[in-house]
Amino acid sequence: MNSWISRVGTVSLVFGLVACGAPKSDDSTASADKGLKVVTTFLPITLFTEAVAGDCATVTALIPPNLGPHDFQATPADVSALGKAQVLVKNGLDMEGFLDKMIESVDNSELVVIDTSKGVATIDSPEGDHHGHDDGHDDDHGHSHGEINPHIWLDPLRAVQQVENIRDGLIAADKSCEEGYTTNAASFVSQLKDLNTEFSAQLKPYAGKTFVAFHDFAPYFAQRYSLNAEYLVDLPEMNPSPADLQRVAAEVKSSELKALLSEPQEGSQSFNALAKDLGVEVVVFNPLETGSEESARNPQTYLDVMRENVANLIKAIGG
Q1: Both 65 and 94 in a single domain?
Q2: Are 214 and 232 within 8 A, CB to CB?
Q3: For 124, phi and psi rounded to 5 degrees?
Q4: Each residue of 140-177: pLDDT tens digit?
Q5: Which of 51, 136, 258, 277 is deepest in the core (most CB within 10 A)?
Q6: pLDDT tens-digit profile of 206-238?
């Protein structure tokens, strides 16, 4: 068994979400109540897993799509579902800070855990540089953004590695559908590589430019496309300090930014007020931590949202 797949249970559970939007396997008899029973954590991990699973597995999200990992608090029903699952797929890098305790609390010694971050090159969080004032959120329940920034899925080529980790993990757990997982993963990986080629061409004229986001989700994306990512606060639940606002105001003026990048799930009055004071717009860059129930079932969501993000980013940096 590969080192990034760990075993902690195996019983079956029928989940309500059927995989769609991914290529179908050769087994036309597959249905929602058949195949491997897989639990995912939050939206991008669900999308990547749906893309690989196709008709070979039933995928359900532990965290409702409208909640981010930092807002999730497990219920007894969630613990019970995890206890009956066969595979759990996570982002890793402490993004799902609640998971270890949750796994320990379930009686499921055969659970296969796929950590999609294994082997992915990471970026350290700025040492000792914690912007913003915490709202008192318990880091056990959210992404604490510790020593390593966890937002690897926002770089399409790191997302390729995550998809390949999911493929290998599902094959190891379910050899009977190896061909389906391999075919499905290859199709989605091809789309991710095409997306990277597209973004590289679109963003090349802006190499070296700086953009400012509300929280620290963009370093992998910025690194991939030779951009500089600044941010107001470490975590989306934090409130910016006056010093944060002054720092970002100076950055916006020096870089001649046309817009600040906000997030669909975060409405910061201070961020909007700062934009107004500086005479710039606020445009959305969606880090895909949340979405709708419908969007969570379709892997195309990742591609669509990332294209919208790049279009908005180009507006922000003066395109």
Answers
A1: yes
A2: yes
A3: -70, 145
A4: 333 345 789 999 999 999 999 999 999 999 999 999 99
A5: 51
A6: 999 999 998 899 999 999 999 999 998 887 777
